[in-house]
Amino acid sequence: xxxxxxxxxxxxxxxxSLVEITLLFVILLLAALVGFxxxxxxxxxxxxxxxxxxxxxxxxxxxxxxxxELQTINPEVIAWLTVxxxxxxxxxxxxxxxxxxxxxxxxxRYSLSGAVFVDAGCSADFSDFNTxxxxxxxxxxxxxxxxxxxxxxxxxxxRHYGSLYFDGQDHGIQFFAFLHVNAYDTEVYRIKIxxxxxxxxxxxxxxxxxxxxxxxPVTTDDRIIxxxxxxxxxxxxxxxxxxxxTDETFDDPFYRESLIPRIDGLSSLWEQAPLWGKIIVVALxxxxxxWLIPVRALKKRSQKRAVTNAQQRR
Length: 314
What we know:
Blueprint: H1 2-48, H2 65-73, E1 77-83, E2 89-93, E3 116-118, E4 130-134, H3 153-158, E5 161-166, E6 169-182, H4 196-209, E7 210-213, E8 223-230, E9 237-246, H5 256-259, H6 263-266, H7 269-272, H8 275-313
Parallel strand pairs: 2-3, 4-8
Antiparallel strand pairs: 1-2, 1-5, 3-4, 5-6, 6-7, 6-9, 8-9
């Protein structure tokens, strides 16, 4: 009878140890998954950070030589776009189609964040009446993630200007409208509008469709630029910031040093982890804690019994 009891105790103990090891393995596996997800997310956002291209930004100090260096790396880089008061400060590309730079960066390398690019149907020298520029909507203030912020009236009112460098010269951008439209709106996304009356009708359409406007004199003699990105509010929604390109340049009223993020050192992996990952880790740690408390209590009881039995044998 005692042999059977001992075998039963050993079996229970082995099963308990197996459960303990399995639970620990699962916790470590899920923690590793959360850590990898956070690391991978951090890597994607880091690759899209404007600081990755900062050394190539054209400036009066180097006569645009740094920008020319980037064009040597990728000849399809045609411009540099900056929206004052945001982190939008990127080289602009253009390909023969609108698919390449969805997952290719400005250096011509594969990247999930892609690049800011001019619509393939528009002229590369921004000589068209309207030029469409596309970019991914991303969190953490990278790529065109802040275009949607212009839906806020105060945000829109505080940010009037930007700059566009192309053909070796700086140009200004004066933003005058923000729109939220459907991705399949062929009228808003129309390009190569050549006739003056159609250009006038197009301007009227933009102002009529706009969520916010600014009193900026825009005529058919101007060249306008539309910065388009996906909207968080709907699957087919698009946010568009519209401005006119000017020969006059504008001072940046914002301190860009305080705006440019550094994704790699911005926060810990915990902060980069997705919400579901954080919930899993916390739940598992809580479960492990609840499980360990009685286990430790049982071990202490076993130790006391062993000491008691040893004393009795003496």
